[in-house]
Design goal:
By secondary structure, the protein is α/β, with parallel strands linked by helices. The protein has 6 helices and 22 strands. Helix 1 (28-39) runs parallel beside helix 3 (77-88), helix 1 (28-39) packs parallel to helix 6 and helix 4 (174-183) runs parallel beside helix 5 (203-211).
Length: 340
């Protein structure tokens, strides 16, 4: 099972969920927070607008090795996400994927109530926001909108789906080159099309793609996608000569980057700092029973790394636990002291 595409215990839309902790954002910080809440014996729900777990890792670099996770000299993004989901799994987190947290209100006891854009209502003892860079929306491929879900994709959560395809990848950044390298062994053909002759991707990544014999077509734009039902071919045009070519393609990956914004969270009355959520040393926000962790927080000296998000979310969950139950200890004891 790849947890990027399949996680257990997702509720259906329009449910009412009662939980001790609601985590908003299923990136690495949120997933580790789900483990930590479970470890503390708290019920936990995790909401994410994306249909998959893993946040930026799954969306942008699932195949990249990460070198600065403590204890792992190198771990592939996808494997880190799988490990985080597996670590939380014994505690049965409820995953609310494909749902954006849009509204925060309070029940009669002042506890947070969060509503999603699909109609789910979550009543929680505390909320931990691990929303990263906010909701990130892929930059569209203008010529490709009609073929979304019929051959045009923004993400490649499961490369094997594209086995045997002719694949056109559009973009010049790391993601475009990473997808090219990842898909080349599975595909019938891979071509990378970029509108400039220079790339944002790292030189080493570009060299790797060249060494795989993948055709890189520069100064060229995709002008049309064609096919009766599903995608069959793509027209490209050189920006300077205006020459056109038609390429066979059953898959087009639009890797043109993302726009990100805090979206609805901006209207919740949270104190913001440089368009991030201001937190104190407990990872408490300016709102009662609302904590935050990971890339979305800001304070003097903040460093945006996965490792830092892990530490912050452990702090957030432990402090939330003492708000939910004032008798609870802040420090839960070491995991090694727990009976297995
Ligand atoms: C190409 C690349 C390479 C990187 N390499 C490294 C590296 O080597 N080492 C390292 O430490 N870091 C690296 N990073 C940074 C790292 O990915 C981030 O620090 C990390 O993902 C932050 O985790 P997070 O859980 O805080 O947020 P994110 O991973 O951003 O996850 C946040 C999640 O919240 C969701 N969300 C936001 N708003 C809402 C809402 N209103 N409702 C529902 N869901 C919402 C988003 O959809 C997203 O899934 C890299 C980043 C990139 C782009």
């Amino acid at each position: 099972m790849s947890v990027l595409t399949d996680v257990p215990a997702t509720t259906s839309a329009a449910d009412v969920v009662d939980t001790d902790i609601l985590i908003i954002g299923a990136g690495p910080s949120g997933l580790y927070g789900a483990y930590y809440a479970g470890f503390r014996g708290l019920r936990v729900a995790v909401m994410d607008v994306l249909p998959q777990c893993g946040g930026q890792i799954s969306a942008m670099y699932p195949e990249k090795p990460i070198f600065d996770i403590a204890g792992f000299p190198s771990v592939r993004g996808r494997d880190l996400v799988d490990g985080l989901v597996a670590q939380a799994e014994p505690y049965g987190p409820v995953y609310l994927l494909g749902q954006r947290a849009v509204e925060l209100s309070r029940d009669e006891d002042g506890h947070p109530v969060v509503r999603s854009d699909t109609g789910t209502t979550v009543r929680a003892g505390a909320v931990v926001i691990t929303g990263g860079v906010g909701t990130f929306t892929p930059r569209p491929l203008p010529a490709g909108e009609d073929y979304l879900g019929r051959g045009q994709v923004y993400f490649v959560p499961d490369p094997s789906v594209h086995t045997g395809h002719d694949i056109v990848i559009v973009g010049g950044g790391d993601s475009a080159f990473d997808w090219a390298a990842t898909l080349a062994p599975l595909a019938r053909s891979v071509k990378l099309v970029h509108r400039r002759d220079r790339f944002r991707a790292h030189g080493a990544t570009v060299e790797k793609v060249r060494s795989l014999g993948i055709e890189i077509i520069t100064d060229t734009e995709v002008t049309g996608l064609h096919g009766a039902d599903d995608l069959e071919k793509v027209t490209i045009r050189h920006r300077l000569t205006k020459d056109t070519r038609t390429l066979p393609a059953q898959t087009v990956v639009a890797a043109l980057g993302f726009t990100a914004d805090l979206g609805p969270l901006q209207n919740w009355g949270l104190e913001l700092q440089a368009r991030r959520i201001a937190v104190d040393t407990r990872m408490a926000t300016s709102l009662p029973r609302v904590f935050a962790a990971g890339d979305i927080t800001d304070y003097p000296g903040k460093v945006r790394l996965i490792a830092v998000g892990f530490g912050e979310v452990a702090t957030a969950v432990n402090n939330a636990a003492t708000v939910i139950d004032p008798e609870a200890m802040l420090f839960p004891g070491h995991s090694t002291e727990k009976e297995n």
